From TrEMBL:
<dbReference type="Pfam" id="PF08279">
    <property type="entry name" value="HTH_11"/>
</dbReference>
<dbReference type="GO" id="GO:0003677">
    <property type="term" value="F:DNA binding"/>
</dbReference>
<protein>
    <submittedName>
        <fullName>YafY family transcriptional regulator</fullName>
    </submittedName>
</protein>
<dbReference type="InterPro" id="IPR013196">
    <property type="entry name" value="HTH_11"/>
</dbReference>
<dbReference type="InterPro" id="IPR036388">
    <property type="entry name" value="WH-like_DNA-bd_sf"/>
</dbReference>
<keyword id="KW-0805">Transcription regulation</keyword>
<dbReference type="InterPro" id="IPR028349">
    <property type="entry name" value="PafC-like"/>
</dbReference>
<feature type="domain" description="HTH deoR-type">
    <location>
        <begin position="11"/>
        <end position="66"/>
    </location>
</feature>
<dbReference type="InterPro" id="IPR057727">
    <property type="entry name" value="WCX_dom"/>
</dbReference>
<dbReference type="InterPro" id="IPR051534">
    <property type="entry name" value="CBASS_pafABC_assoc_protein"/>
</dbReference>
<dbReference type="InterPro" id="IPR018356">
    <property type="entry name" value="Tscrpt_reg_HTH_DeoR_CS"/>
</dbReference>
<dbReference type="InterPro" id="IPR026881">
    <property type="entry name" value="WYL_dom"/>
</dbReference>
<keyword id="KW-0804">Transcription</keyword>
<dbReference type="Pfam" id="PF13280">
    <property type="entry name" value="WYL"/>
</dbReference>
<dbReference type="InterPro" id="IPR036390">
    <property type="entry name" value="WH_DNA-bd_sf"/>
</dbReference>
<dbReference type="InterPro" id="IPR001034">
    <property type="entry name" value="DeoR_HTH"/>
</dbReference>
<dbReference type="GO" id="GO:0003700">
    <property type="term" value="F:DNA-binding transcription factor activity"/>
</dbReference>
Amino acid sequence: MEVASGDERGTTERVLTLLGLLQQRQIWTGPELADRLGVTPRTVRRDVERLRTLGYPVHASQGVGGGYQLGPGQDLPPLLLDDEEAIATAVSLLVGAGGAVASAGDAALRALTKLDRVLPTRLRHEVRALSGSVESFGGGRTPVDPDVLMTLARACRDEVEAGFGYPSGSEVRRRRVEPYRLVASDRRWYLLAYDLDRDDWRSFRVDRMTDVSARTWRFRPRAAPDAATYVQESVASRVYPHQARFLVHAPADTVRAQIPASAAVVRPRGSERCEVLSGGRSLDFVLMHMVLLGHDFEVLDPPELRARCRVLAERLLSAGATTSPVPRG
């Protein structure tokens, strides 16, 4: 491996400084950049060419008001952040990862794990202190400890085993898992992992975990189910004692807009129909919600639910029948 000479290191540092200046302001003139960098305008032009070679779209314009400008590129090049910008970015991502907007939470956590790779140790305690001072109110996702999210995200990224306490009946048991993916629903964070003690895939609510830790023992990734689909099916049906499937005579997009993703799985069956998988503590409860959607539907499973439909239909017809008014005493 070759070691860069002092001149090469000096050039690299100067080019990074130039990039930082271009990110700070819309337009710089050549003399302004030369004065800031302590070099000649000719050296500035060479350094600009180096940035272009690395994929940064640096535009140059002539005349009054002209100069060098960093423009948007086809691909997203690396950003150069100072300490304050890195801290602000990390804190914002931590808030986004635990926030109420599910679609933003996933992306925020992915970006945070990338930033975590390069964030200097000296800045970590400042990020933790600042994130602890941020609160929110109102509805949205169940709050979780950002450090727990980061621990699990690192374990997924680095393919190392994780351990945590998790409720099982009336007691909390220690679980050993191979973490695969973190999944955000509209209400909660979940971890899809291979449970080493139960020898099967499981989904876990992150807000129920205690004493979360990542181990140094690495594992070879297994063939895994689709994380989002598995977790959604677990949340919407498998956790309940009763499950039911329906064929709904309405487009899948229409039904998805009526049912929270955590309450049912909706699969298209052509352009005008869809299949709905849901669960509940009683089949009557599930059936009531299907009726309230306002669409024609058929019961696919379980068979006994069809008989229950007839019983409830007769009861509703009886309740809606014309009756004599009750005399007032």
